[in-house]
Recover the amino acids of this structure.
């Protein structure tokens, strides 16, 4: 089992449509993986972080959402088996520090919370 934060990739059609594709992709991943949508609040796109600074050009762009959420149901792929839980930012930091959160796309987000 891997513990992480909702994460994924930006679809090519999201880029082609232009606009705010980081927020669109983050909202899609949140809905697909947790079954929640942001009804009201804020969605902040942070600065991109290189996954492995000196060995890769792959970056992750953390997006932080806070506000009022509504549950609509997940949209998992056949191969996905995901359970969701709400945690505070403080608990997420602790989970990254103690090794509970291990997913490679989630760990760079920990750097943002420490700023």
């Amino acid at each position: 089992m891997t513990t992480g934060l909702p994460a994924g990739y930006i679809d090519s059609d999201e880029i082609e449509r232009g606009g705010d594709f980081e927020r669109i992709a983050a909202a899609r991943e949140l809905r697909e993986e947790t079954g929640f949508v942001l009804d009201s609040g804020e969605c902040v796109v942070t600065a991109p972080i290189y996954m492995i600074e000196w060995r890769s050009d792959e970056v992750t762009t953390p997006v932080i959402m806070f506000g009022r959420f509504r549950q609509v149901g997940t949209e998992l792929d056949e191969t996905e088996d995901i359970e969701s839980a709400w945690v505070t930012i403080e608990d997420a930091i602790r989970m990254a520090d103690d090794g509970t959160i291990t997913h490679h796309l989630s760990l760079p987000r920990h750097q943002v919370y420490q700023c």
Observations:
- The domain at 12-113 is CATH 3.90.79.10 (Nucleoside Triphosphate Pyrophosphohydrolase).
